Amino acid sequence: MSEQNVREHILLAEIVGISVAFAGLVLSLRAATVAGAFFGGMICFLLVNGTASSQYTIVRSGLTPLALLFVLTFLATRAGRRVKAQAGLSEKRHGRSSAQVIANLSIAGLTVSGLGFVVMMRGEVCCGGGYYKVWVWPAMMLMCLAAMVEATADTVSSEIGQAFGGRPVMLLTLQHVDPGTDGAVTLLGSLAGIAGGAFVAAVGMWALRLRPSQAAIALFAGICGLFFDSFLGATVERRGWIGNDLVNFTSTLFAAALAAIIYRLFVL
Amino acid sequence: MGEEMQGVEGDTGWRKAIPETRDRLQSRVLVGVVGVLLALETVAVLRQVYFI
């Protein structure tokens, strides 16, 4: 076995250990159900495996922004819990379900996996381009970060908005509605969400070894995804066509795709 | 991420617009499709390193 192979084995063992520990932590904090923690660990594994490099420590991978996302969303969910409970809007005691975990985090994990690579390559070939070696890898990193920024901003904005944001307004009509209404936003919640997303983008820039312009694209795409989520909530979700899990999944996918398109069209 | 905000009977009057059964079905399909993709990707990575 060559030295390179040994290194790969050690790195993979580290990633497996960290992913199992992450799932255990999520479960012990009751941040997710057993199935939710299981899928969370799997996403952590794919995300870290797809972004880690044997030239750097494991902290310089998707693990750091993922951990920050977890901390920020966990704190935002706990913030003002009494207010949310009084309004009948607090999170279920056993935490996020597997559908919620997958809806918010799966895109981040899949974009840096083998599947993400194949999809990006096919897309480049279909567009008739031959620049995949130059742009596909950084674009995958950007997509991953944009999805994490969107997931953070969305959760923080809704949790902080519910607790401290006062009476929300509908994004499309600017009419005041009751807290909890699909697609409703508050100024405080949106600002908190954007601040949380910016924090994840800044830490992600360092961890994923991106340039500031690349992190800015991920942040912009993530914020667009946040408002796309509210738009879907105010339209298709409010009409009862699709549920919140599908809205969240679509919004993270939107943020990731937007980041790749901007990078391909304007930066390359 | 309003899904985790669970409305309770007799509170603010807010309810999910989507029928419960459709909501549940959509969530199950999401877990079924994307969950399988995640599992396949994970197995593929482990296989690549440990069995080749």
How would you describe the overall organization of this protein?
The complex is a heterodimer of chains A (268) and B (52). Chain A has 268 residues and is mainly alpha-helical. Chain A is built from ten helices and two strands, in the order H-H-H-H-H-H-H-E-E-H-H-H. Chain A has a two-stranded antiparallel ribbon. The longest helix of chain A is centred in the middle third of the chain and has 33 residues, at 132-164. In chain A, 53% of the residues are buried. The model of chain A has no long low-confidence stretch (mean pLDDT 90). Chain B has 52 residues and is an all-alpha fold. Chain B is built from one helix and no strands. Chain B has one helix at residues 20-50. Residues 1-10 of chain B have low confidence and may be disordered. At the A-B interface, helix 1, helix 2, helix 5, helix 7 and helix 10 of A face helix 1 of B.
- Mean residue pLDDT of chain B: 77
Number of strands of chain B: 0
Give the helix/strand class of chain A.
Answer: mainly alpha
- Biggest sheet architecture of chain A: 2 strands, antiparallel
- How far apart are the first and last residues' alpha carbons of chain A, in Å? 39 Å
Estimate the mean pLDDT confidence of chain A: 90
Strand content of chain B: under 5%
The rounded Rg of chain B comes to: 18 Å
Uncertain runs of chain A are none
Characterize the biggest β-sheet of chain B.
none
Shape, principal axes of CA atoms of chain A: globular
Q: Sketch the topology of chain A as an H/E string, one letter per element.
A: HHHHHHHEEHHH
Tell me the Rg of chain A in angstroms: 19 Å
Q: What is the CA-CA span between the terminal residues of chain B?
A: 41 Å
Order of strands, widest sheet of chain A:
1-2
Count of discrete alpha- or pi-helical segments spanning 4 or more residues of chain A = 10
